[in-house]
Amino acid sequence: MARSPARVLIVEDTPTQAEVARALLRDLGHEIRLAETGAAAVRTALEWAPDAILMDIELPDFSGFEAMRRLKAEGLEAAVIVVTAHGSVNHAVEAMREGAVDFILKPYAKARLSVTLQNALEKRALASELRQVKAQLHRDRFLGFIGASPTMQAVYRTIESVAASRANVFITGESGTGKELAAEAVHRASLRRAKPFIALNCGAIPRDLLESEIFGHVKGAFTGATENRLGAAKLADGGTLFLDEIGEMPLEMQVKLLRFTQTGTFQPVGSSRPEKVDVRIVSATNRDPWAEVEAGRFREDLYYRLYVVPLEMPPLRARGEDVLLIARHFLTLFAKEEGKQFRGFTAEAQAALLAYSWPGNVRQLQNVVRNIVVLHDGLAVERAMLPAMLLRQASTPRMAEAPPAAVPELAAPPAASLEPPPAATPIPIPPAPMAPVPMAPASMPAPSADPWLPPSFEPLAEVERRYILAALDHTGQDVPRAASLLRINPSTIYRKLQAWKAGSKD
Known about the structure:
Radius of gyration: 34 Å
Distance between the termini: 67 Å
Structural class: alpha/beta
Shape: elongated
Helix content: 40-55%
Number of helices: 19
Strand content: 5-15%
Largest sheet: 5 strands, parallel
Number of strands: 16
């Protein structure tokens, strides 16, 4: 490691010895200060923050060991080298116990002092780097995020890695996982941080207004366009344009966005003059983007333009005790807003928070904590204060512990030899609707009289749909309970319901 100038404090009550040390270090280029007493050493060290201290043991007021203890109590991280004429094994052991990095005896040669000091400075630098690395690996706060779990550490590292580049970022994750917060973090960590961050929710804007919202329009371009209006692309010039829920963008608009990503140019609605901007596009969706491509709802060429650096936001259920970190943060925030006295959660309340699957992720947790603060008061949140949905799931046996016969399994269509399900089945599964069967010719086999054998096989997706809807009917539309009965994650049911709803709109 190359030598570099450092601040060195010499603590020595004998002037001639102090001058000897100063003379030996003069050629190394270090900045030197002297202290003749223990009190002066402590005062100078705290004011000047030296990199290294040459500490004499025998001082007029108190020992060098006492000075080291006081500096350690103040949190000073200088490399201390004990220098004394009274060398012994006991002195060396005590010096190391008090935090010294080395021990040398008077008189000493210039080479000995130089090597010892340089080694001490290098060890201090390495220790400082190690602390920084550990801090980076175990951050529980990062650009607005709260979380110390390994999954969030990976998110932080990805954001730091991609921030300095110009590459487009595509964020995926369930609703409520913080996709917009991640987009803002990418912007804040980048060289574009001084320029605008413009967010646009493509699913919240009517289709006929989306082009105007992104690219702007000129006066008279359409009914109601009474003046020129800048779009999000122009407003984000030099900065970052965040397109949330991009999977909701209609195909005709995707064509125009593709051209924009290729050329950086666009034309406001009603204008014939192209404009050029410099923006970085960050996109987000709670769907599987490639599945949307395969389904024909998202252009493959646009996918490759936007899906350059993927960033997946983990669901809250996969983040372990981050649930408690976030809950405490919201509790402190909302208690201050509402003038309440809450300071934390009881052990039973924490266990219930950790046991819940959080299908709505961080957004749901935020709402739950606000609900608790508004409706209750006290020094600690107790288990009884939690919403009923959390307590129901916390009291439900683990899915793996449920008896295997409690829920009919989604298996392949049964063979003719299978018996009907037992009458104790907790979820009544309605049979598939059966159309009237016309009279068959004598050569055709008669339909089976078994109600669990349909006249023709159903698509597996339809069987799955009927099972899920039946489970929801059985539990009074309680998604977590239905998921527990079906031995699937609640987010699967939420995702299926959303997909079915979207399909019915089409």
